[in-house]
Design goal:
The chain is built from six helices and five strands; from the N terminus they run αββαβαβαβαα. It is α/β, with parallel strands linked by helices and about 170 residues long. A hairpin with a 2-residue loop joins strand 1 and strand 2. Helix 1 runs parallel beside helix 5. The two termini are about 25 Å apart. About 35% of the residues are buried.
């Protein structure tokens, strides 16, 4: 499995989101070396924020809409995210039965992958998932820096995540 290849595809989606003024997160779902669903962050470029349409949620929604959805072993799916999934997305990924998360850039403010699933209810803790952080981290960091350096982008402006991101060396 070429994690960098698929993360580049997610980074392309993040770049598209950035160009649209959205918070630059991209996501691809891969099954047997084939991209089967994608998503990019939506709902941050308007005056009324949408905190539901995260890249991972959109990709999972697209996955669920596939005609052969029930024939795919979701445990064999790898989800590639340009930023560590938040707690909402991590929960949705667990519920979907995805087998592996690969992410580029850590979310120091809202990342959910450090959640101790052993302490959760059976619906969540019984799902087996592996996590690989830091794949193409520098490339993702650079996209987030472009976002936070742009004075017209107000989403998470002045936040812990913004300060942390802008303090990182590329």
């Amino acid at each position: 499995m070429d994690h960098e290849y698929f993360m580049e595809k997610a980074l392309n989606l993040a770049q598209t989101a950035l160009e649209q003024g959205e918070f630059p997160v991209g996501c691809v779902l891969v099954h047997k070396d084939k991209i089967i669903a994608t998503g990019k962050r939506e709902g941050t470029a308007k005056s009324v924020l949408n905190e539901v349409d995260h890249a991972e949620i959109i990709a999972l929604r697209n996955l669920a809409g596939m005609k052969d959805y029930n024939e795919i072993s979701r445990q064999e799916i790898i989800i590639y995210c340009t930023m560590e999934p938040c707690l909402m997305c991590f929960g949705a990924i667990l519920l979907a039965g995805i087998g592996k998360i690969v992410f580029a850039y850590e979310d120091v403010m809202g990342g959910g992958t450090n959640c101790n699933t052993k302490d959760l209810s059976p619906l969540y803790k019984d799902n087996k998932i592996s996590i690989t952080p830091g794949v193409l981290r520098k490339e993702s960091l650079n996209i987030f820096k472009m976002y936070f350096y742009n004075p017209t982008n107000n989403y998470w402006k002045g936040s812990l995540l913004a300060h942390y991101t802008l303090s990182q060396k590329s």
